[in-house]
Amino acid sequence: MTRSLRQEGAMRDNTLRIALAGNPNSGKTTLFNALTGARHKVGNYPGVTVEKREGIRARAGRQYRFIDLPGIYSLTAYSIDEVVARDFLLEEKPDIIVDVLDSTNLERNLYLCLQMQELGIPVVGALNMSDEAAAKGMLIDEKNLAETLGIPMVKTVGPKGKGIEELLDCIDRAKAPQEAGRLIHDKFINYKEEIEAKLGALQSLIGEDKAFGAKYPERWLAVKLLEKDADAYSRLKEHAKAPEVEKAAHDAALWIEKHFGKDSEIIMSEQRYGYIRGAARESVRVTKTADFSFTEKIDAVIMHKFLSLPIFLFVLWGVFQLTFLLGEYPMQALENFFGFLSGRLNEAVSSDVLRSLVVDGIIGGVGGVFSFVPLIVILFFLLSILEDTGYMSRAAFATDKLLHTFGLHGQSVFPMMLGFGCSVPAVMASRTLKNPRDRIITILITPLMSCGAKLPVHVLLAAAFFPDNPANMVILIYSIGVVLALGSALALKRTVLKGDPTPFVMELPPYRAPTLQGVLWHVWEKTWQYVKKAGTVILASAVLIWAVTHFPAYELSDEAQAELAAAFLLENPGADGAALENYIETSAAESALAYSYAGRLGKFIEPVFRPMGFTWKIAAASILGFAAKEVIVSTLGIIYRVGTEETEESEGLREAIRSDPDMMPLTAFALMLFTLIIPPCFAALAAIRAEIGWKWLGFEAGFLLIAGWAVSSAVYQIGRLVL
Ligand code: GDP
Ligand code: MG
Predict the structure, then answer these.
(1) Looking at the CA of 517, which ligand is closest?
(2) Which of 411, 483, 598, 609 is the least crowded, having the fewest Cβ atoms under 10 Å away?
(3) Dihedrals phi, psi of 514, to nearest 5 degrees
(4) CATH placement of domain 11-179
């Protein structure tokens, strides 16, 4: 008992909990991955990490638990990211904070660093991107900087893993400062004398409540109170003498404002910047005067006042064109492969039910979804390149003006673009938006950005019914999605979510050559998700759907068969035996489908779908597709294989759908619209609930359901009148 307790104590001593904090895009996740061997998503875009993640590194009998926090600029708790990071630091009290600094932007990055130092937790600075700083001609004397600020500093290069061991050494020393001789953690930024006097008085007043003092660092709280930080004031409520401290803080802030003639918050931040500038002047030498850099030259064109938006639209158009151009061949090959496989299995499996399950159910369903893997791979590859080069941030600027007209934000563009891939990360990426209203709107409209799972539906229908230019058709659907998204944003802004967009503050990361490893990782991660979904959810639903389309079993009676034959011969007097047999088999399969559970469900629900021009087959597929949009394709695969089972000339699903007399190009278009607009898959709905709660989820589901039905019905009805 005692022994195990002691062991536990030893373990605790030997485990360090280390928070990785820093500005967005400073390389935290890259360093986290290098430190822990994890492979989390990094991206050349502020705000990619929206949740904290943990990873472990063991070295010399010691465990280092790293927590990757979202990127923040300050500890003021304006945005969700800041709240997450700040709550973590205050409440979980890590042993050490590693502040990941972008060395090329040292002064701004140090602002956060100094705020964290005031928390009273040992801070270690990782001077990341030191390769880029060196390339820019910035010589940073990290020893001198460390001495001046009282924060140990180590130069690192995240993607190369440079400086990792030194960083761990530094963490060890920071944990045991006595071993390293008198080191530096007892130092803080010094404000002006008058301010220090006020801080001192506040600190001792706060310190009078010992329990409270143990929870919140006195110095930090005193500073925040002088800065009139709302969150700090609400935390102060737990203090035994809260009203007294509060009054003292108000008075002090007022005094400072009178004395300096400026807002106390501004005074504090000016002082910090002054201190940083002084420290930087002593430790950083710039050997090259920055010439008109590579990034600036490119931005002169890409960020041009009039060109930026057309360039963005062209880039988007190019991404989709290229996706279809490159995707066509591997997709065709996969379709052929599955066709070949079905043929083989058709011969090899003797049991009727088993053959039908394998060929119609599994291969028809899952194969249909698998055939789209090449498209997904290419789309994600291109989007990753845009993100990693730094273009996405430019897109945010380029679209900012335009999006403002719709009550949105340039920052909404990244979640929206991610939505083309998958709504789940897109919904999560909306966390970077500071204003809760903007965030809710962005989340609510991202499902209208047609995602990777809807792509198969669009492609299938476009290829079958608009063979002249399927790519343009798909792009049209995507564009309609964007227009609907913008329109909804405007409507929401005018009604339930009134208010002005917050001013746009986002920085432009420099252009970087994307690393092959990084891009491949993104692609692999996304593709694997898709494949996994096809192998599990879609496989299971394919089997289920096969079952509901094949049972209860249907037998064509002899009389019915004779009747069919008579009717057929009456209409086609000269027909030969093969045509007759073909006709009877097709009709039998049709009747079997209509007789099955799926057929009954489809027929039951058909009246609701009728205004959109959908027959019960499409109705059944759409309903089953609510869980995940790929299921629509696999269901159609199963339904139409059933309908044309033995007609040997069926050249796959496209052919089969096209030959359905109830399907016209207009119906296909209505179905594409319906698929585009109806609520996203269950995974995305869960993400929406997690981000903004049940109430908004209910609103979203209802809104999209009604909108999907209304738009498709209107298009179909008007189309019928006009065409
Ligand atoms: P985070 O937002 O702080 O998590 O930043 P990420 O880890 O996602 O990195 C942002 C971008 O900077 C990515 O494109 C990284 O490949 C790149 N990056 C990170 N560290 C370094 C570095 O030390 N040197 C250079 N040249 N690039 C880096
Ligand atoms: Mg990150």
Answers:
(1) 1
(2) 483
(3) -65, 140
(4) 3.40.50.300
